[in-house]
Structure formats: structure tokens, C-alpha cells
Amino acid sequence: MSNGLVAGLDALPAWQATAAVLALSFGSAVVLELVGVRLARRVTRRTETALDDIVFEELRVPLVVTVALAGVYVLTRVDSVATATLVDARTLSLFFGRPSLSIIVLVWARALNRVVNRLVEAVKDRGDRFDFAPVFSNVWTLVVLVGTVAVLLSLWEYDVSPLLAGAGIAGIAVGFAAKDTVANFFGGIALYFDDTYKLGDFVVLDSGESGTVAKVGVRSTTLLTRDEVLVTVPNSVLNATRIINESAPGRRRRVRVPIGVAYGTDIDAFEQLVVDLAQGTALVLDAPKPRMRLRRFGDSALEYELLAWVNGPTRASRARHELNRAIYHALAEAGVEIPYPRSDVTVRSASEGTDADGAADGR
């Protein structure tokens, strides 16, 4: 299409081709600014989200600039215009064509970078799910910068092959020198996409360490333990180990309290006593209701387990403590025996042992 347009302009005199191209390009830019922009602004104002407003505001200028400077670039490719000037076609392209394209590239690069950065600023405070958003903003800025430099060098006919080779070698060297940092960085991105945890979640690691997620960084994650100690764990380690998130999908957690009672106990009354006791405990939730389960017949006791729910994993230990105390006092008042292992020990004196041996020898 562009070749056909250039061929059609070549058939016109230089001044007519110039006037037609400039009138078309600058006229289109004015129409786009006065008509298209107003229509787009009306549409974006009707939406509830402000994200489309950000995109519109940042892309408005590049669109207008592109339409305006496209005519200048087209003029440098029209033979009738090039022959009518005092310079050759290469010089015309060097001072007008390539600068026009360069300005277009720079304007679009700046706009695309600002769009992402402003979108990140708009969503990063919407919840813990977007804590990694600034990381992607920095990565995007680096990608836009590298891509813009590569396009400009290619536009001005610079050979980028040596630069790419050097960048590849430098990347390999940096990768070996900072492999832990790179592993932590990509480990953090993997954790973000997997939605493994977020700020405020209570997690338990395979190593036995547990705590509340206090900070999620690019290289590491910080846990606040129950002992009020901050533990920093590299993201690469977290990405390679099993993580139990006790706060997901909901913060509610079940508490298990094992109880043993003697054989012969009225189990119906015992079960009702413990369930009523659990329902009266402040930390135990009313729904789901607490319930008792007879797990097995032990050597010296009927082994029960109380199942109750608490609002958050950090309350489980405190709830278990209060339930154990209340159950012990209640069973003692009700006369329900809590059995425990017993051993009978027979003590014999040395003389009794000798007499017994002698009598055995006489027989």
C-alpha cells in the first residue's frame, strides 16, 4: 500500500506531492486530536475503572505525532520531491526521514513505558496479590530501553551483531557470577504466578520453620515467627521446597485435641460434655460445630479426638491450651477417669532370692 502511494506521488510535481502529503498528514493529526481524542475521552469517562483513562492519556500524543511525522517520512521516499531539492535522496533521508522515524520510536517507547508504570502504580495498592507489580515495572522499563536502543541502531544502519554478541557473553558471565541472585529473582516471580502466599499468611516450611509472611521481596521472603524473630528465606529455596500455607484458601483452621478415657465410660455423656465445653470456649468458632471422633481402642484407653475450628492458624496453639485445661477440669469434676500407663514392680530381698534357689536345688 505504501509503495502504491509513493508511486502515485511520483507522478505529481514536487510541490504538489509535498503539499498533498503534508496536508494529508498534518490534517489527519489535527482531525485525530480534535475529533478522535474527544470521542475516546467520552468513552473512557463512562467506564468505572481508571485504567483505560491511563492508557488513553499516554497513547494520545504518540498517535498524533505518528500521523504528523509519517508524512515527512513519506516525502523522503518520493523521487519527484528528492530530485527537486538541492541534496540527494540519501541526505534527505538522513536529515528528515530517519529523524522522523526516530522521534516516532522514542515517543512510543516513552509512552509504552509510562503506561505500564502508571498501571503498576494504580494496582499495587489494591491488595497483597500485586506486591510483585513494581518488579515487573522495572523489568518492563529495561526491556523497553534495550528494545528502543536496538531499533534506533538498526534504523540508523548500525551493525548490532557485535553488540549482541558482547551482550550475550556479558550475560553469561553475569549469570555465572550472580546465579544465586538470578535464581532468587526468578524464584520470586514463580512464587508470584503460583500465588503460593501473600503478606499476612501463616506458612510452614519443610525445614520446620513457620511464621507469618512479613515481607515479600525480589530476592527473599521474610517470616515473622511466633517468637517475634524475623527469618529471611531466599526465594529460590522457597521455590524448591514444600510450603504449607495454613492461611489459604481461608484463614479458618481446624484444631485437633486428643483425649483418652477409661474403658467402661459412658461415651455418650462424655462426648456431649466435651462438645458443650468446646462450644463454650471463646476462641472456638460456632460453625462448623465442634465434634468428637473415636479414633481407636488403645491399650489402656478409648482414644478420642476433639475437632474444633478457630479463626486463624496463629490461634490454634492458644485454643488447644485452653481446651486441654477446660477438659481436664471438667472430667475431674464429672468423675471421668483419664487413664495412664501403669507398671507393677515387685521388689525382693537378697535372702529371699537365696532361699528360693536353695529350695529349688533340694527338689
UniProtKB/TrEMBL annotation:
Q: Which domain of life is it from?
A: Archaea
User: In what way does this protein cross or attach to the membrane?
Assistant: Multi-pass membrane protein
Which InterPro entries is this protein grouped with? LSM_dom_sf, MS_channel_1st, MS_channel_C, MscS_archaea/bacteria_type, MscS_beta-dom_sf, MscS_channel_2nd, MscS_channel_C_sf, MscS_channel_TM-2
Q: Which GO terms describe its cellular component?
A: plasma membrane
Ranges of residues in domain Mechanosensitive ion channel MscS: 180-246
Which intervals hold domain Mechanosensitive ion channel MscS C-terminal?
Answer: 255-338
Gene3D superfamilies per the record? 1.10.287.1260, 2.30.30.60, 3.30.70.100
Among SUPFAM superfamilies, the record links this protein to: Mechanosensitive channel protein MscS (YggB), C-terminal domain, Mechanosensitive channel protein MscS (YggB), transmembrane region, Sm-like ribonucleoproteins
Query: Which Pfam families does UniProt cross-reference here?
Result: MS_channel_1st (PF21088), MS_channel_2nd (PF00924), MS_channel_3rd (PF21082)
- Annotated membrane-spanning segments are 12-37, 58-75, 95-112, 132-154
Localization recorded for this chain is:
Cell membrane
Sorted keywords for this record are: Cell membrane, Membrane, Transmembrane, Transmembrane helix
What range(s) does the Mechanosensitive ion channel transmembrane helices 2/3 domain occupy? Answer: 143-179
Q: What is its main location?
A: membrane
- Name the family the entry cites: Belongs to the MscS (TC 1.A.23) family.
Q: What is this protein called?
A: Mechanosensitive ion channel family protein
Annotated source species: Haloplanus litoreus
